[in-house]
């Protein structure tokens, strides 16, 4: 079945350094990929989603590129900010395959940005 | 103001008891979902409803029963509670059923602990 694999556990960075959170996936079809972010004591919310026309989605300085050849959708940012500290989920939607019409989430990566 | 309200925020129950988790959304969405996050596991899809009809059920146990009394309500009844049911339960909604262009909006979750 479909699955999503993320950098597990905790990623600790110093403010100003680049961010890269890994996400790879397995899917029989061509899924759509998403990044959701959950700040402390808040609900998860959508950060980015992949496009059908290979455009690179960007939001709040974050971007991610869907690479079908490597089945990856890594999240990147050139310079981490303290406010980026949060739990990040990668997810896929494969409404034409075994996943039906639901999102499959990775385990989540906790990003901690230090001064 | 939170647009998806989950009640209660924290819930402690004894093994064998029954609890109802409440979810109301004020986004005017037609689709609602329940996801569960157990310790060290990804967000896991449980149910999806569209226009108050069950569309997808990925929960093996009949102890979990969603209830939709109104279009913007999707409660979750859990009977014969077990310690393994301990998790954070997230309610979510989208304009229509999850698909490539649908954004999920999440509630803050109900953290259930079964003793």
Q: Short description, anyone?
A:
Chain A has 115 residues and is mainly beta.
Main attributes?
heterodimer, A: 115 residues, mainly beta, six-stranded mixed β-sheet, four-stranded antiparallel β-sheet, 47% strand, globular, B: 115 residues, seven-stranded mixed β-sheet, 11 strands, 50% strand
Question: Mind explaining what this structure looks like?
Answer:
The complex is a heterodimer of chains A (115) and B (115). Chain A has 115 residues and is mainly β. Chain A is built from no helices and twelve strands. Chain A has strands at residues 3-6, 9-14, 19-21, 23-26, 32-38, 45-49, 58-59, 62-64, 75-77, 86-93, 103-105, 109-114. In chain A, the strands form three sheets. In chain A, strands 2, 5, 6, 10, 11 and 12 form a six-stranded mixed β-sheet that branches. In chain A, strand 5 (32-38) and strand 6 (45-49) form a beta hairpin. Chain A is globular, with a radius of gyration of 14 Å. Chain A starts with a strand and ends with a strand. By secondary structure, chain B is an all-beta fold. In chain B, 0% of the residues lie in helices and 50% in strands. Chain B contains no helices and eleven strands. Chain B has strands at 4-7, 10-13, 19-25, 31-37, 44-50, 53-57, 64-67, 75-78, 87-94, 105-106, 110-114. In chain B, strands 2, 4, 5, 6, 9, 10 and 11 form a seven-stranded mixed β-sheet that branches. In chain B, strands 1-3-8-7 form a four-stranded antiparallel β-sheet, with no helix packed on it. Chain B is globular and about 40 Å long. The N and C termini of chain B lie far apart (33 Å). Classes of the chains: A mainly beta (115), B mainly beta (115). Chains A and B meet through strand 6, strand 10 and strand 11 of A and strand 5 and strand 10 of B.
């Amino acid at each position: 079945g479909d699955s999503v694999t993320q950098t597990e556990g905790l990623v600790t960075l110093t403010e100003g350094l680049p961010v890269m959170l890994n996400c790879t996936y397995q899917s029989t079809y061509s899924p759509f990929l998403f990044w959701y972010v959950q700040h402390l004591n808040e609900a998860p919310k959508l950060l980015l989603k992949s496009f059908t026309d290979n455009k690179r989605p960007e939001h709040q300085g974050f971007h991610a590129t869907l690479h079908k050849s490597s089945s990856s959708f890594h999240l990147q940012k050139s310079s981490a900010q303290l406010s980026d500290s949060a739990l990040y989920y990668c997810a896929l939607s494969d409404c034409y395959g075994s996943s039906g019409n639901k999102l499959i989430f990775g385990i989540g990566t906790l990003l901690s940005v230090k001064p | 103001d939170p647009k998806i309200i989950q009640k209660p925020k924290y819930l402690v129950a004894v093994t064998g008891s029954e609890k109802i988790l409440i979810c109301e959304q004020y986004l005017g969405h037609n689709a609602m979902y329940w996801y569960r996050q157990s310790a060290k596991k990804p967000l896991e899809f449980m149910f999806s409803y569209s226009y108050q009809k069950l569309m997808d059920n990925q929960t093996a146990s009949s102890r979990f029963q969603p209830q939709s009394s109104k279009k913007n309500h999707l409660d979750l009844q859990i009977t014969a509670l077990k310690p393994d049911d301990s998790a954070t339960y997230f309610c979510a909604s989208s304009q229509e059923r999850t698909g490539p262009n649908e954004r999920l909006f999440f509630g803050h979750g109900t953290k259930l602990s079964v003793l």
